[in-house]
Specification:
By secondary structure, the protein is of the alpha/beta class. It is 43% helix and 15% strand. The protein has 13 helices and 12 strands. The protein has helices spanning 16-23, 27-34, 42-55, 61-68, 84-99, 113-125, 141-149, 174-187, 203-219, 234-245, 259-271, 289-293, 305-321; strands at residues 73-78, 103-108, 130-133, 154-157, 168-172, 193-198, 226-230, 253-256, 281-285, 299-302, 328-331, 334-336. Helix 5 links the parallel strand 1 (73-78) and strand 2. Helix 1 packs across helix 2 (27-34), helix 1 (16-23) packs across helix 3 (42-55) and helix 2 crosses helix 3. The longest helix has 17 residues, at 203-219. The termini are far apart.
């Protein structure tokens, strides 16, 4: 029969004096070893580290932070951590920061600008050394005013903020990737192309619409495209797809401007029993396993999202180590044609008499 063991009073943590006594050295010698000071003999280092191991000593991180004026921590605010793109941003950034000795504090805003602001204030109170931000809004005055007052380096991912904030930025070249995809669809015979994308208050939304228009101009055709901006959500993908399918002359190709949007688009297409790659062509943005494993595989405007997080962390690290003027880094996108980007059905290849109404872009 086992007896319930009463909880014991918590023992005070081992301190640096005990380590010094066990190693038979001065407290200053322990500090030099633990701070990796170069002026320490191998024998001294071995004695101190053996004492640290034997006593289970853990340095007081808070005290060290106060002494050096740095917490060796970085805050990262993302809009939706369930989105594989955001998860890859974090994965890339965390690998770089971990190797440099920094810990990452991750905050999720659920696309709510007010949560962005609350998280920024929290990270500031934790005295993080810098911040990586994928903001819910580029236009919200309260967020921008808060960022302007920060006294730590900031790097924004795929967001455009005013120069007065002094932030570094890492961008994806959405415009080029979209232009390549739309040119491909035009060359396949498509003219009525629908784009479901992020809000035009977000850089990605503006650049993708711009890339679609660039392709139409480059191919010298009448512009029969329609863009439906909104949130990067499956709900927007589904409702916008329904809107496109309800047009008097519906598009023969749809571009989903994000993998969350794609889920909603596929849901609506299945409800209408439209076969991807046969009844309608489909392209998505940001490659992920569902796109390649779908039957038929879905054509993708792709970018290295892990690399984007890695680059953002490297830019922040450089600013932390060597104060410098804010700069912008642009990373490429590519188009990966797959079976879903098929030519339009023969019945709709000929020029249509009616054109879809264009939705005004706010």
């Amino acid at each position: 029969m086992s007896q319930h063991r009463k909880s014991q009073p918590r023992r005070d943590r081992t301190n640096v004096r005990e380590v010094a006594e066990r190693a038979g050295v001065a407290i200053s010698s322990v500090s030099r070893v633990l701070s990796k000071h170069p002026d320490v003999s191998p024998a001294m280092r071995e004695r101190v580290l053996s004492a640290v191991t034997a006593l289970g000593y853990e340095p007081d991180f808070l005290a060290q932070s106060l002494r050096r004026g740095s917490t060796l921590s970085v805050g990262f605010i993302v809009g939706d951590i369930s989105n594989p793109v955001m998860a890859n941003f974090v994965r890339g950034a965390e690998a770089v920061l971990r190797a440099a000795g920094y810990s990452l504090l991750l905050m999720n805003s659920d696309g709510d600008p007010e949560l962005d602001e609350a998280h920024i204030r929290f990270l500031e109170s934790r005295r993080v050394d810098g911040m990586l931000l994928s903001l819910a809004s580029e236009k919200r005055r309260a967020t921008l005013d808060l960022l302007e007052r920060l006294d730590v380096p900031v790097v924004v991912l795929d967001r455009e903020v005013p120069a007065r904030i002094g932030a570094n930025a890492v961008y994806s070249d959405h415009r080029t990737g979209m232009r390549l995809a739309v040119e491909y669809l035009i060359d396949q015979g498509h003219r009525r192309i629908g784009l479901i994308t992020a809000s035009l208050d977000m850089r990605a939304g503006r650049e993708r619409v711009g890339g679609m228009r660039d392709a139409v101009v480059a191919r010298g055709i009448a512009d029969e495209t329609i863009a439906l901006p909104g949130s990067l959500s499956s709900e927007h993908g589904e409702s916008a797809t329904e809107e496109l399918l309800a047009l008097p002359v519906r598009p023969t190709a749809i571009i989903a401007g994000g993998n969350q949007i794609l889920i909603g688009t596929l849901r609506a297409l299945a409800r209408h029993q439209l076969r991807v790659g046969q009844d309608i062509a489909l392209v998505t943005c940001d490659d992920f396993p569902l796109a390649e494993l779908h039957q038929p595989p879905i054509a993708t405007i792709a970018r290295d999202t892990v690399g984007m997080g890695r680059t953002a962390a490297q830019v922040l690290q450089a600013r932390l180590e060597h104060p410098q003027e804010p700069a912008t880094v642009m990373l490429p996108t590519t188009f990966r044609p797959r079976a879903s980007a098929s030519p339009p059905p023969p019945a709709v290849v000929a020029p249509a008499q009616a054109r879809p109404r264009r939705r005004a872009l706010a």
